[in-house]
Amino acid sequence: MNSSSTQYLNSKRMDVYDTMHPFSMWGDFKGNLYQDAAATMILEVDAKLDNQSEDTSHTTNIPFNQYDQEATKPVNKVLRRLAQNREAARKSRLRKKAYVQQLEASRLKLHHLEQELEQTRAQCALMSGGVNASHLRFPKPAKSGIAAFEIEYEQWVEEQDKKTNALKAALHSSLSDEEIDKLITDNMNHYAILFNIKAAAAKADVFYLISGVWKTSTERLFLWIGGFRPSDLLKVLVPQLQYNLLDQQSHDLYNLTQACQQAEDSLSQGMEKLQQTLSEAVACSQALGGGRYEMHNAMEKLEELVRLVIQADFVRHETLQQTLRYLTTRQSAQGLISLGEYFQRLRDLSSAWATRPCEPTA
Amino acid sequence: MQQAIPYKAWSLPLSNNHATGVTPKSTTELSVGALRDAVSENAVIVLARRGCCMSHVVKRLLNGHGVNPMMFEFEEIDESEILKELELIMTENDGKDKRRVQFPAVFIGGRMFGGLDQVMASHITGELIPLLKQAGALWL
């Protein structure tokens, strides 16, 4: 009896329950609930509809409103859920629209950039004659040196992380000292490569190197003459090892720390002197017998900057090499791992900081 | 400002580099002829272009050890002449030493030690101090 009356209601009150059909079709979104709720409602409305005329049911809202005050709690909940669902659907549609618009805009921008790139490449091909234009990102030769450095450095960092992990694994496994030594040599050779590419970059564009834009932001915090401080090297390494050091080693490392700091200070003072003489060359005070301002004097000073940066890298490299000379195989491995991890963490910190959720400004 | 000063007649003080409390004015302008004497008579001498900031680095590094090196600064025009003289001195002292002279050039105990790279490297490895002591530039 129940089912037949339900069917009767469904056929006669199709327009009334029209709004419920789309809801029930949203299978995964509480569809089942709605079907149950609808069924419940039908059963309950069933009793009351017998007293209603058909005319009052043409608009979808009215029968629901009429029953609102008299309806039981489940009906209220269902109504609210339906309304919320409508809202959610509307918002979803709006979001989708916005996303599609954004995609379209990006597509246009990409197209423009590609055009620009083609134009620049064509210009380069004209300017540099037979040079393969696709190798150049920028027209100036100096900038191509920097473009090369950026790519090489990125590869270096990736490779360095792999080597650090390999060394870590080796140390915790049962590899012989000889085999660990090979990995250490490999790691050190890799550092040598870093200083080589940095030297090339210094000659291509020293200001680029000294600005530190090629480093992550936290690394840049510690920037000193185009790289990390040599003394930082020891500050990271020594505490990790200090409980396993022989007296002689502690003594040697202490002396090395002093020497490193002195070398660093002398380079810092060299930099100050360079800034001072450059400033004097540019200001070119005639009162001090400076004569006419000649730009080439100032240019010569800038060439000294290249030497200074290369010298700073030399000190970094020497310090690292000398440190390992005082350590055993396993200590060296541990030291290199600590160093690798330190820079890895600094880099990760940079990313984390950049992507941290921001409070809305409103 | 550069004059051809006769070999014997200069009156500029060439101080020894023993670490004393007094710091004499160690930057002097000497003619090329005085170079030979300057090299042989000073425990540590640094030859560099005037205003070179790398020579400042070497000077500070040596100062850190308590050494006050004689600074021989020349104008760029004199560089080639000075280079010739230096190479002459080097062949006399140690004929086998065929290294190219790079400025700033450091002479310790009358013999050519090297450029900034060598000084830095030996400083970090700790080899510099005994060398300086040997040359009489360091007392402690």
Q: What oligomeric state do these chains adopt?
A: heterodimer
Shape of chain A: extended
Give the CA-based shape of chain B. globular
User: Which structural category do the helix and sheet elements of chain A fall into?
Assistant: mainly alpha
**Widest β-sheet, arrangement of strands of chain B:** 1-3-2-4-5
Rg of Cα set of chain A: 37 Å
- Describe the main β-sheet of chain B briefly: 5 strands, mixed
Q: What proportion of the residues of chain A form beta strands (DSSP E)?
A: under 5%
Distance between the termini of chain B: 39 Å
Averaged pLDDT of chain A, please? 81
In total, how many beta strands of chain B?
Answer: 5
State the low-pLDDT regions of chain A, or none: 1-11, 16-34, 55-60, 130-139
Percent helix of chain A, as a range, is over 70%
Order of helices and strands of chain A, N to C?
A: HHHHHHHHHHHHH
Topology of chain B as a string of helices (H) and strands (E): EHEHEHEEHH
- How many individual β-strands of chain A? 0
Can you characterise this structure?
The complex is a heterodimer of chains A (362) and B (140). Chain A has 362 residues and is an all-alpha fold. Chain A is built from 13 helices and no strands. In chain A, helix 6 packs antiparallel against helix 7 and helix 7 (177-204) crosses helix 13 (329-354). Chain A is extended and about 90 Å long. The two termini of chain A are 60 Å apart. By secondary structure, chain B is α/β, with parallel strands linked by helices. Chain B is built from five helices and five strands. In chain B, strand 4 and strand 5 (111-114) form a beta hairpin. The model of chain B is unreliable at 5-29 (pLDDT under 50). At the A-B interface, helix 11 and helix 12 of A face helix 2 and helix 4 of B.
